[in-house]
Amino acid sequence: MVRLDLTGVDFVDSELVDFYDSKTIFFEPTNKLPETVTFKIWGADIERTAVQDEFIEVLDYPNISEALKKNGRLTVKGFSTLTFEEVVAGEIKISPYDKGEFVKLKNGTTQTFKREWNLDQIDRQCFCYHLNASIYFPYGACDLKLYTKGRVSFEFDPKNCINYLDYIGDKDRGETFWGYLKNKDICTSSLSYPDVDPRHVS
User: Fold this and answer.
1) DSSP state for residue 182 in the 8-state scheme
2) Whole-angstrom distance, CA of residue 76 vs CA of residue 157
């Protein structure tokens, strides 16, 4: 496993990692936000600079060497872990999907669930980490902001790294974007491949 220190890194415009574009977080909104927040994420992207800066010993991982021969970043085809320390506040917005489409209210607007934690406690010492991703449950589009004063780390297995273009271009999307559905320790039978992407089910 490799651990990257992401303290003070702007996730929206990062030269190390990217959690956008159909990445799925396993964050569970709670009534009280804990001081340390840890959750898994499926399919995180790692910029090429992370390798060039020798965070990863490329020679130890032929899969990374092969992936770097092509254009584009690396993608972790598997689970990674994000950990936030000294969490002060947070906010989340979730727009759930139903068979690949947003759930709509009677007036035609998109259903959105919101939750906020301790926003009145944010001060200049806080750093905002913004993730725009998918969320496992309730399955949908997710906008998550965590405000912390401590360290943030990202841990992943280099053996799971493939080229980003191979990841998004794989015709077997069930093994890439939604490969996590096979992990029954984390995912229950509440979701299946036809639920998340019925357009690609024959």
Assistant:
1) G
2) 8
CA 126 to chain centre: 21
Phi/psi of residue 93, nearest 5 degrees: -130, 130
Question: Letter for the amino acid at 8?
Answer: G
Nearest C-alpha neighbor of 29 from the set 15, 41, 39, 14: 39
Domain count, the chain: 1
Cα separation, 44 vs 134, in Å, equals: 11
**Distance in angstroms (rounded) separating the CA atoms of residues 22 and 138:** 15
Q: Give the largest CA-CA distance in the chain.
A: 56
Q: Which helix (H) or strand (E) holds 20?
A: none
The residue length of the chain stands at 202
Q: What is the pTM of this model?
A: 0.88
Specify whether the CB–CB gap between 176 and 170 falls below 8 A.
yes
The tally of CA atoms less than 13 A away on the side-chain side of residue 173 is 16
Residue type (1 letter), 13:
D
Per-residue pLDDT of the chain (202 residues; tens, 9 = 90+): 888 889 999 888 777 888 877 689 999 988 999 999 999 999 999 888 777 656 677 777 888 888 888 888 889 999 999 999 999 999 999 999 888 788 899 998 999 999 999 999 999 999 999 999 999 988 999 999 999 999 999 999 999 999 998 988 888 877 888 889 888 888 877 777 777 776 655 5
